[in-house]
Amino acid sequence: AAGTGFNVIEFDAASNTQVDKIRELIIENVKYAPTRGRYKIYIVDEVHMLSKPAEAALLKRLEEPPPHVVFVLATTDPQKVSETIRSRTQHLQFHLLPISDLESHVRYVIKDANLKVSEDAIQHVLHQGGGSARDTLSALELVAAAGGEVDAQQSATDFVEALINKDASLALSSTARAIQHGADPRSLTEDVVRALRECFLSAIAPELVQLPDGQRELVADQARRLGTPRTVRAIEVLGEVLIEMRHAPDARLLLEVALVKLTSSTEANDLGPIIARLERLESAGPRDSSVPAPRPAPVNPATCKVQVGGKAKTATLPRDP
Fold first, then answer.
1. What is the reported pTM?
2. Which residues does residue 70 pair with via DSSP β-bridges, in sequence order?
3. How confident is the model over 204-262, as pLDDT tens digits?
4. What is the DSSP-derived secondary structure letter of residue 50?
5. What is the DSSP string of 105-150?
6. Least confident window among 20-29, 113-122, 156-165
7. One-character DSSP codes across 235-275
8. How far apart are CA 187 and CA 123, in angstroms?
9. What sign results for the dihedral spanned by CA atoms 51, 55, 57, 58?
């Protein structure tokens, strides 16, 4: 707990990916008994970053571990860890924290570090954290470095209101102000998608919304006025924009075009294309029975295979005049 135990060894697999580092820091040292206590504990962080030879070396030690050694493998991408290693480990999955616990922790950190952070900034930090303690503290660090205040433009509320009122001017002006205050287009798009997700959850499963009470009521009101179909449509469009931003020369332009599209008065909800397609199919009616169906290609009885050019041979060719 104090971080002073000699028998707790942390290994960063992200910066030591090669097999030589694994052999030097882990494989060769596990044979030595702990200096005190019963166990030596090796914490391998970001284990999915190991190279294939390094994974093979670690696997050999996992298959035959000394009785005094405990391995703790930490990763943010368990699906990237080889199946042979995963099959030899016990999985302990961490979950997001309730918003009330995070708020208590944030207030404790502010008091302990003697920080000056406004109430609006605290709510902004909790919203940015999304239930993750690390992300919440990272957001708190940024807010504290900026003087403990958060600008109203940094909130995604204006963007949701622009979608509700189909106000393209408000959406573009909010984008300009946010970028002027240092937000990059991708993170801004992620913030809007996160706010829309809260609206979606508020409409479908309110118990899953992890927000303070005051903000929960605001999100519920926005979800009611925006409607679930338009909320889902906005999430889909902005999600596609996030993918396109990876290779786009001007990410801001993609966001602005998407916002104008979503705030357009002619923008239909997500059921519009489906309804239009059903109407076209219904108007076409059933197939005309007077039109003969295409004949199947003839089959050679000797080989039971379709004859190449069979249809052409059985067709009646027009005669020359």
1. 0.55
2. 41
3. 888 888 777 677 888 899 999 999 999 999 999 999 999 999 888 889 999 999 999 99
4. S
5. HHHHHHHHTT----HHHHHHHHHHHTT-HHHHHHHHHHHHHTTS--
6. 20-29
7. HHHHHHHHHHTTT-S-HHHHHHHHHHHHT-TT---TTHHHH
8. 18
9. positive
